[in-house]
Amino acid sequence: MKQSARGPGRAVRWLRHGLVLLAATLVLQPAFAGDDTSRAAAAVKMTGEAAAKDAAGTPTKDPVAASHARHASFGKEQASAQAIHVADWVVDSANNQGMPFMIVDKVRARVLMFDASGNLQGAASALLGLARGDDSTPGIGDRKLSTIRPEERTTPAGRFVASLARDLHGEEILWIDYKTAISLHRVVKGTPGERRAQRLSSAAADDKRISYGCINVPPAFYNKVVSPAFTGTNGIVYILPETRSAREVFGSYEVPAAKGG
Questions:
Q1: What is the dihedral of CA 69, 73, 78, 82, to 10 degrees?
Q2: Are 252 and 240 in contact (CB under 8 A)?
Q3: 239 and 169 together in one domain
């Protein structure tokens, strides 16, 4: 009798236990689904603008923040699409960290100087490295100029923290990358055959490929624009690539056009 009485009681308890588990599962299932959704939303938030991509896999600005996009101001300067892309990204992302910044457009052989807010302060032609390419030969900054072969005379692409300094002759220059001995300075006389001053005035970008890698600009532009912009502060120099994309070099994204623009 005890055994028969115990059997039905156990069955009832198991039935009740099963119903409790089923109810708990039904109650908790939406919570787990919501948790997955929350994690997905958090992941999107954490990855942010750099991880957002369009259908072609190109980084784009977070759509949520697109309505607040900021752009650089070029005034009357007819800049290249790549220069506009990078300048807008710098301003929108605050990549310049509150410092003035410069864009060196190697394809057009042109330098553009902006204040910390992205307003163009001036632009000028520039002489660049003889050889095309976006990388420097390892150890080139420690070599004598006479040992640097023509194919090694590149102006490297990248983002550099730059500051004013003095060269061995006491002349002020803008040091861009000490490791590779790249600087921006007033155009040097060079040899008569190089015709550096005449090259600066040429409308052809190919005429401006003559230096060992440093960036030569007109003295008036250096004195009136570059030197004042970097006096008392560091700044960022963005040297645009010519063999790779700006997105590959800087991790930049496309800033949505201004509404109605």
A1: -40
A2: no
A3: yes
The whole-angstrom separation of Cα 48 and Cα 46 is 5
Q: What range does the domain containing 14 cover?
A: 1-50
Residue 105: closest CA among 118, 122, 90, 86: 86
Strand partners, 60: 254
Co-location of 78 and 103 in the same domain: yes
| Contacting residues for 160 by C-beta, under 8 A, at least 6 apart | 176, 177, 182, 236, 237, 238, 239
The amino acid at 32: F
Same domain, 162 and 44: no
Contact between 205 and 242 under an 8 Å Cβ cutoff? The reply is: no
First to last CA, the chain: 90
Residue 58 lies in a domain: no
**Cα–Cα distance list, 198 to 24, 131, 191, 204, 242 (Å):** 83, 19, 12, 11, 24
Same domain, 95 and 158: yes
Same domain for 96 and 211, yes or no, is yes
Same domain, 25 and 90: no
Q: What is the pLDDT of residues 29-62, one digit of tens each?
A: 333 233 332 223 323 332 333 334 444 444 555 5
Q: What is the pTM of this model?
A: 0.75
Q: What is the 3-state secondary structure (H, E, C) of 135-169?
A: CCCCCHHHCCHHHCCHHHCCCCCEEEEEEEEECCC
Please give the helix or strand (H or E) that residue 196 lies within, else none: helix 196-201
